[in-house]
């Protein structure tokens, strides 16, 4: 095939012809076009949401940089960070003081530097102050103002900024950082401004990685969906395109027409998808991730990104259509004659094994690196696509050898004849199986191994233990709370060497605990009393978000996979409508054709998706079986559920194309149209 | 109509008073036609004359609006689609213009498929299918796939598939339509002689006079009616299958100039 001449490929005639063919496509044509548009729309909407969440996490992280102060040689202020809790939710308290004789800039989200004794709170914390009685206020002092959005990660975040004298204990007493609570505690730091820096050890990284993984897992099945719908359009029109070729249209013209139609449907779908993204945005904004819902602005991707995604979707649709077209352009008689079934090289299997071995070697060496495994993880995904057709071919050979019934023989021959097309039908579910396997045993434990949920602790230097205990008893008694005060050897509050845990056990629920917490706040300068459960709040949150994300991603991948399987099933019926029609005329029962169609998808799915699930478990193992995670039996249930849903969905998708099979076989006359 | 009644007596397939309309278009307006065992009947007519509709009604692909179709004396026009489907599979054979072979199946399995659908084991079906290859000039082609066969070879495989279940009637709809003249004549020759030898009735729909000349009888459809029932042009004993067969492959009826080119 000569390279298409770009001038004839996309000139006015091409567009006119394309438009006429698209409009004159009849009901089947309309169906195929609608499916293409729908696939592009769904891909666009989901892609935009994926990008939005990735960018959203970025924006959230940007706005909390100022809480990770950078020590300066020419300081103007002191900044310290502590974290207390209200009803189990963390409250970030930033203590600031202006150094004598210096002019400190206003912290983010504030019009001016806070005066001594002023408390500025985030809108959500302001609500809490209104709702809670004085004896449960998480932060002492009176509210002077509300923090603007620039200081807050998300609308629900509880943040307080407290102004102090430069000599106050809150901004002079060193604070012991706790490795289990990254970002929760920052010792008083002399700063020149409130720019801060990206926290390197915070939980934000975990979310960014989660968003990346989720995006890959969602995007690849979407690519499959886009490709299958584009192929459907081509198989619908190949006869007419072949006819045009026969009357002398150049390959360039045909390619141009295909590209033009794909671009039209792709663009229509992308615009619809953008609309869908816009409509889904208000709902998505309400979804609580990483501790709260979103600012709508954070999930708006911005015009440049939007245009890039739209262009990407259109390009993807066009490329898929052109790839599907190759057959037609080959010759005027349309479908190229296949003389021999292509043998799938054994090299495919070797490549797969190489990637798997490489992956396991790599992850053994770089256990804690998240990005390295991510790359390999994408490679494994790719490796599945490489080995898929080979497995389908081998499977076809086995089925052929064993077949006794016509349906099995037809299915086996079909798989053996065109393993790649067999693979296309099941690829989505195979990749979904991989995702399911990847997440199934990927449980992050949310349980805290430290202390007790009803025991508040502070770390106190040995010499002061008696005094602090006395003070604590006095404060609790004054607040009317019955509690047992003592010391403990559990590691709850961080205090460094030579400190002892002074603890107060407060049975009776969260409300009582919070009252005790308020009473004991400022018992020790720079420390908020915490329980063992408090330590683990971010891990717990991440664990919850992780399982939600898992379910969401699995849902999306399975729905996408089943949709592509259905579309591919329809395309393959259209591709073979003439043969099917003639077989029916010759008395072949539709039942047999249907049974063959079922077999040629279900058998590969059972083998491939099963294998892919195992591969997924294997790929996830190095990422999950580290510290702080455990194998969950719930994961196995999830996996089984996914399989049930996948197979049922596939059967339903096949059943949905049965009316199409019936109608094309009945429409088809004995002679080509 | 007298001659018609006499043929009806020995006929294996009879269509009587067949009517069929599509909306306002009348495709068949009362057609009587019959074909006997071992006899070949050509149905001719211009495009849109109703000849395909006639074939569809006779073959149980469509039901007529009025009239009867009798196969071996039994009415088959009122059967439901599942039964008609079974009828087509077990008692009829079909040869279409092209595209009827499954591209991914080797030739022998394509031929064996109707037998397997009938419940015969794969091994037996393939064995029986392969027996048809040498007489149809297809020896050695058993394991080739349709894409590896020439157009004529593919049509002969299709003939084998139509014949393998020992049907009573074979319907051929433009069986040579996708072939060049020489190959087309080879294929129709093979089709007519083989069905005659098997004692199978053959109904050929064609617009090609050369093809029709190979058949024992020709009927012409025009505007939904049989406008003429002609003996084959040179045919003294057109309906007499045995006499016709006796002439064998030596003296072909007409189309002599093509004979010269293809006769071996």
TrEMBL record, chain A:
UniProt keyword terms in alphabetical order: Cell membrane, Membrane, Transmembrane, Transmembrane helix
Topology relative to the membrane: Multi-pass membrane protein
Stretches assigned to the ABC3 transporter permease C-terminal domain: 215-325
UniProt KW Membrane keyword: yes
Stored InterPro entries: ABC3_permease_C (IPR003838)
Membrane-spanning ranges: 30-57, 254-279, 299-325, 346-362, 374-400, 421-444, 552-574, 601-623, 635-656
Pfam families for this protein: FtsX
Subcellular location: Cell membrane
Main location: membrane
Record protein name field: ABC3 transporter permease C-terminal domain-containing protein
Organism of origin: Streptomyces griseorubiginosus
Automatic annotation (TrEMBL), chain B:
Annotated spans, Disordered: 226-264
Any one annotated GO CC term: membrane protein complex
CDD domains: ABC_MJ0796_LolCDE_FtsE (cd03255)
Bias kind Basic and acidic residues: ranges: 254-264
Pfam hit, one: ABC_tran
Compositional bias of kind Low complexity: 235-248
Keywords: ATP-binding, Nucleotide-binding, Transport
Domain ABC transporter: residue ranges: 13-248
Recorded superkingdom: Bacteria
Any one GO molecular-function label of the UniProt entry: transmembrane transporter activity
Protein name listed in UniProt: ABC transporter ATP-binding protein
Taxonomy of the source species: Bacteria, Bacillati, Actinomycetota, Actinomycetes, Kitasatosporales
């Amino acid at each position: 095939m000569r390279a298409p001449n770009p001038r004839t490929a996309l000139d006015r005639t091409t567009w006119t012809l394309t438009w006429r063919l698209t409009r004159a496509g009849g009901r089947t044509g309309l169906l195929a076009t609608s499916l293409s548009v729908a696939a592009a729309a769904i891909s666009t909407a989901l892609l935009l949401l994926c990008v939005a969440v990735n960018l959203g996490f970025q924006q959230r992280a940007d706005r909390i940089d100022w809480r990770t102060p950078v020590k300066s040689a020419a300081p103007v202020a002191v900044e310290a960070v502590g974290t207390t809790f209200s009803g189990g939710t963390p409250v970030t308290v930033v203590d600031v003081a202006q150094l004598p004789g210096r002019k400190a800039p206003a912290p983010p989200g504030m019009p001016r530097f806070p005066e001594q004794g002023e408390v500025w709170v985030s809108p959500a914390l302001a609500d809490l102050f209104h709702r809670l009685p004085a004896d449960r206020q998480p932060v002492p002092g009176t509210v002077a103002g509300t923090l603007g959005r620039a200081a807050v990660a998300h609308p629900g975040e509880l943040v307080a900024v407290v102004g102090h004298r430069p000599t106050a204990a809150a901004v002079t007493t060193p604070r012991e950082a706790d490795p289990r609570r990254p970002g929760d505690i920052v010792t008083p730091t002399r700063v020149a401004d409130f720019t801060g820096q990206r926290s390197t050890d915070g939980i934000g990284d975990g979310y960014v990685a989660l968003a990346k993984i989720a995006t890959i897992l969602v995007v690849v099945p979407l690519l499959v969906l886009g490709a299958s719908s584009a192929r459907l359009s081509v198989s619908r029109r190949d006869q007419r395109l072949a006819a045009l070729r026969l009357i002398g249209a150049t390959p360039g013209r045909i390619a141009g027409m295909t590209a033009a139609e794909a671009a039209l449907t792709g663009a229509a779908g992308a615009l619809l998808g953008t609309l869908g993204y816009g409509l889904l945005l208000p709902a998505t904004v309400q979804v609580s991730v990483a501790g709260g819902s979103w600012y709508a602005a954070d999930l708006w991707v911005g015009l440049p990104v939007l245009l890039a995604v739209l262009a990407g979707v259109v390009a993807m649709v066009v490329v898929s259509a052109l790839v599907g077209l190759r057959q037609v352009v080959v010759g005027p008689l349309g479908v190229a004659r296949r003389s021999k079934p292509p043998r799938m090289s054994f090299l495919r299997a070797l490549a797969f094994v190489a990637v798997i071995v490489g992956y396991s070697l790599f992850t053994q060496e770089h256990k804690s690196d998240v990005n390295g495994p991510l790359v390999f993880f994408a490679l494994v995904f790719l490796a599945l696509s490489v080995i898929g057709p080979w497995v389908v071919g081998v499977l076809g050979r086995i089925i052929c050898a064993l077949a006794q019934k016509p349906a099995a023989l037809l299915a086996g021959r079909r798989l053996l004849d065109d393993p790649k097309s067999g693979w296309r039908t099941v690829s989505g579910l195979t990749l979904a199986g991989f995702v399911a396997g990847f997440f199934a045993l990927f449980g992050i434990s949310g349980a805290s191994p430290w202390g007790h949920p009803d025991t508040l602790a502070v770390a106190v230097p040995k010499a002061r233990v008696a005094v602090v205990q006395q003070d604590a008893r006095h404060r609790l008694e004054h607040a009317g709370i019955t509690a047992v005060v003592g010391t403990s050897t559990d590691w709850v509050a961080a205090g460094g060497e030579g400190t002892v845990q002074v603890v107060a056990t407060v049975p009776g629920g969260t409300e009582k605990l919070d009252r005790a917490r308020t009473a004991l706040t400022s018992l020790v300068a720079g420390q908020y009393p915490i329980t063992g459960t408090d330590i683990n709040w971010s891990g717990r949150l991440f664990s919850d978000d992780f399982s939600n994300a898992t379910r969401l991603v699995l849902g999306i991948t399975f729905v996408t996979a089943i949709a592509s399987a259905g579309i591919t099933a329809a395309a393959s019926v259209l591709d073979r409508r003439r043969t099917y029609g003639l077989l029916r005329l010759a008395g072949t029962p539709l039942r047999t054709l249907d049974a063959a169609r079922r077999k040629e998808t279900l058998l590969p799915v059972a083998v491939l998706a099963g294998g892919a699930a195992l591969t997924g478990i294997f790929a996830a193992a190095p990422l999950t079986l580290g510290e702080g995670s455990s194998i969950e039996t719930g994961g196995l249930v999830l996996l089984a559920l996914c399989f049930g849903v996948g197979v049922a969905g596939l059967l339903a998708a096949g059943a949905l194309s049965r009316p199409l099979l019936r109608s094309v076989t009945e429409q088809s006359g004995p002679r080509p149209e | 109509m007298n001659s018609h009644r006499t043929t009806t007596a020995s006929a294996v397939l009879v269509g009587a008073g067949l009517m069929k309309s599509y909306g306002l278009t009348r495709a068949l307006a009362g057609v009587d036609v019959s074909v006997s065992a071992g006899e070949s009947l050509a149905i001719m007519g211009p495009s849109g004359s109703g000849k395909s509709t006639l074939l569809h009604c006779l073959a149980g692909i469509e039901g007529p609006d009025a009239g009867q179709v009798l196969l071996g004396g039994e009415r088959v026009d009122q059967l439901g689609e599942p039964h008609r489907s079974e009828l087509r599979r077990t008692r009829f054979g079909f040869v279409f213009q092209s595209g009827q072979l499954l591209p991914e199946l080797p030739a022998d399995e394509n031929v064996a498929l109707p037998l397997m659908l009938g419940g015969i084991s794969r091994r037996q079906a393939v064995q029986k299918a392969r027996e048809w290859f040498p007489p149809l000039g297809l020896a050695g082609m058993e394991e080739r796939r349709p894409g590896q066969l020439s157009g004529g070879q593919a049509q002969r495989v299709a003939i084998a598939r139509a014949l393998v279940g020992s049907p009573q009637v074979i319907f051929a709809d433009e069986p040579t339509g996708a072939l060049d003249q020489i190959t087309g004549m080879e294929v129709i020759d093979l089709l007519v002689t083989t069905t005659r030898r098997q004692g199978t009735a053959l109904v050929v729909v064609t617009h090609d006079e050369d093809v029709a000349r190979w058949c024992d009888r020709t009927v012409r459809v025009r505007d939904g009616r049989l406008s003429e029932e002609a003996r084959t042009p040179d045919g003294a004993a057109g309906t007499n299958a045995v006499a016709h067969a006796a002439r064998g492959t030596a003296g072909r009826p007409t189309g002599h100039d093509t004979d010269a080119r293809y006769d071996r």
